[in-house]
TrEMBL record:
Highest taxon in the source lineage: Bacteria
UniProt-listed CDD domains: SDR_c1
One Pfam family of this chain: adh_short_C2
Keywords assigned by UniProt, alphabetized: Oxidoreductase
Gene source species: Rhabdobacter roseus
Similarity-based family: Belongs to the short-chain dehydrogenases/reductases (SDR) family.
Protein name, per record: NAD(P)-dependent dehydrogenase (Short-subunit alcohol dehydrogenase family)
Gene3D superfamilies to which the protein is assigned, alphabetical: NAD(P)-binding Rossmann-like Domain (3.40.50.720)
GO MF annotation list: oxidoreductase activity, acting on CH-OH group of donors
Length: 285
């Protein structure tokens, strides 16, 4: 499949962005991706599941047999489109609209998922925001707090709420970033939260090992998602990902199989680890 598509210079006014406005739209799943029942009978909760990597994970999970609940901020049409994609795979999809920065909402989202499906087996902490600044002195205090609240505090909230429902063989997967390992001079606060997620993943994996609950992370490189045109100017968007060894940005369809692997029994002896779909960047992490 040809993933090397021509990305046009474009911007969007608000984060986390809208997928249907992107040109070209991201590739969600390969036509030749064949599910094999790796997640039959499972229930997954995915934050930021309406678009981008979260949407691709939802559709891949569904093709592998899981029912899915997706948490999203306010992108109703994207969420509805994702639900349709999941239902087209023959599985059920619950949409939960709200702000992951709010602890009570995170608790309610977990309870709604369990009430709808009767259980929870896979938690994917994925929602994120980013606000580039060239100078640390330009970082607004409120934006700094928002970035940490979305990108790492919410991971604690959802994990705390989910744990009573998880049992041996279940899985938590956290979305970190290549920036956690190589840094990002223009995304100081974002890369700091991603570093925190990596440490959170490693620490939590040890904390839950005796319960048989595996905790891993995925650290994507430059992936074509709505957050990109909602973050950068048109010139930077047009060049996005071209500085990787593979010379192009990745697609959500190239990242989601990492989550399938980590959520499935194929990864039964893997915990505390990070997978790196990043276009060939060697980061030794």
């Amino acid at each position: 499949m040809n993933y090397d598509m021509k990305i046009k210079g474009q911007t969007q006014p608000d984060q986390p962005g809208v997928e249907e406005l992107m040109k070209p739209e991201p590739i969600v799943i390969r036509d030749n991706y064949r599910g094999s029942g790796k997640l039959d009978g499972k229930t997954a909760l995915i934050t930021g599941g309406d678009s981008g990597i979260g949407r691709a994970v939802a559709v891949h999970f569904a093709r592998e047999g899981a029912n899915v609940a997706i948490v999203y901020l306010n992108e109703d049409q994207d969420a509805e489109d994702t639900r349709q994609m999941v239902e087209d795979e023959g599985k059920r999809c619950l949409l939960i609209r709200g702000d992951v920065r709010e602890e009570n909402f995170c608790k309610e989202a977990v309870e709604k998922t369990v009430n709808e499906f009767g259980k929870l087996n896979i938690l994917v902490n994925n929602a994120a925001e980013q606000h580039p600044k060239k100078d640390i002195r330009e970082i607004d205090t409120n934006k700094l707090k928002d970035t940490f609240a979305t990108n790492i505090f919410a991971f604690f909230y959802f994990t705390q709420a989910a744990l009573p429902h998880l049992s041996e063989g279940d899985s938590i997967i956290n979305t970190t970033s290549v920036t956690a390992f190589q840094g990002s001079p223009g995304l100081l606060d974002y890369s700091s939260t991603k570093g925190a997620i990596t440490a959170f993943t490693r620490s939590l994996s040890g904390n839950l090992a005796d319960k048989g609950i595996r905790v891993n992370a995925v650290a994507p490189g430059p992936i074509w998602t709505p957050l990109i045109p909602a973050t950068f100017d048109a010139e930077k968007v047009e060049k996005f990902g071209k500085d990787t060894p593979l010379g192009r940005p990745g697609q959500p369809a190239e990242v989601a199989p990492c989550y399938v692997f980590l959520a499935s029994e194929d990864a039964s002896y893997i915990s505390g680890q990070t997978l790196h779909p990043n276009g060939g960047q060697v980061i030794n992490g």
